């Protein structure tokens, strides 16, 4: 594993979902957020055709490379490889970790979404690079979400694994500190950044709350 990858597996993780950000170009969001200090981005589109997703992801990949930030693709190993992303993020319904690792190779990052202790324990066995865990609070971008786990749920999970954990789910800027103190290495956000009137100020606000 490239050691520079792991150095960046903390802090603010921005999920670029076109459905949460119809009025702005995602490339513009990535560039502004990277300039403001965000270092980890994920492209996630549940509705685009593969061709549309490739076009969007390739432009984001190029912008991420220019900004010197990590770029992850949600769900799709083929798309991640096609644009030479830094890694892939798998949900519970996606490809098994060992198969994804074979496809992606050793030098790419693999993250896994988890929602309870059993999923965290199972995912940790396969040694992904990081875990997403949540929802901590009620998500702003999802109606059909898993049960909210809260800070206590997050704290108990952080004692089960040594992997970096990114907390996700409705996290607002005034909750960042308590989420990090509960043991998360970082926070993953969608609406709080993508829907902010001033992206740069929103990113700086989140980063200022991180110990």
Description:
- The protein has one domain: TIM Barrel.
- Helices cover 40% and strands 18% of the residues.
- The protein has 10 helices and 8 strands.
- It has an 8-stranded parallel β-barrel with strand order 1-2-3-4-5-6-7-8, surrounded by 5 helices.
- β7 (165-168), α8 (176-181) and β8 form a beta-alpha-beta unit.
- The longest helix has 18 residues, at 50-67.
- The chain starts with a helix and ends with a helix.
- The model has no long low-confidence stretch (mean pLDDT 93).
Describe how the helices and strands are arranged.
Layout: H1 3-7, E1 11-16, H2 26-35, E2 40-43, H3 50-67, E3 70-74, H4 77-82, E4 87-90, H5 97-104, E5 109-114, H6 117-125, E6 130-133, H7 150-158, E7 165-168, H8 176-181, E8 186-189, H9 191-194, H10 199-208
Parallel strand pairs: 1-2, 1-8, 2-3, 3-4, 4-5, 5-6, 6-7, 7-8
Helix pairs in contact: 2-3
CA-based gyration radius: 16 Å
Proper CATH architecture: Alpha-Beta Barrel
CATH-assigned homologous superfamily: Aldolase class I
Mean pLDDT: 93
Low-confidence stretches: none
Number of strands: 8
Main β-sheet, spatial strand arrangement: 1-2-3-4-5-6-7-8
The percentage of residues in β strands lies in 15-25%
The gross shape turns out to be: globular
Q: Give the count of structural domains.
A: 1
């Amino acid at each position: 594993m490239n050691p520079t990858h792991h150095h960046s597996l903390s802090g603010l993780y921005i999920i670029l979902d076109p459905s949460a950000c119809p009025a702005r170009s995602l490339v513009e969001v990535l560039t502004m957020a990277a300039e403001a200090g965000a270092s980890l981005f994920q492209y996630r589109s549940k509705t685009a055709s593969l061709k549309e997703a490739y076009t969007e992801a390739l432009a984001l990949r190029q912008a991420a490379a220019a900004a010197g930030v990590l770029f992850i693709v949600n769900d799709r190993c083929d798309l991640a490889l096609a644009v030479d992303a830094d890694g892939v993020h798998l949900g519970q319904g996606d490809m098994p970790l060992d198969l994804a690792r074979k496809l992606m190779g050793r030098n790419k990052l693999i993250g896994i979404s988890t929602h309870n202790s059993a999923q965290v324990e199972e995912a940790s066995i396969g040694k992904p690079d990081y875990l997403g865990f949540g929802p901590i609070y009620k998500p702003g971008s999802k109606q059909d979400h898993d049960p909210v786990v809260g800070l206590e749920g997050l704290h108990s999970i952080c004692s089960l694994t040594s992997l970096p954990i990114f907390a996700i789910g409705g996290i607002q800027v005034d909750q960042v500190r308590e989420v990090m103190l509960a043991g998360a290495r970082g926070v993953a956000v969608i609406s709080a950044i993508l829907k902010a009137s001033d992206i740069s100020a929103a990113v700086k606000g989140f980063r200022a709350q991180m110990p």
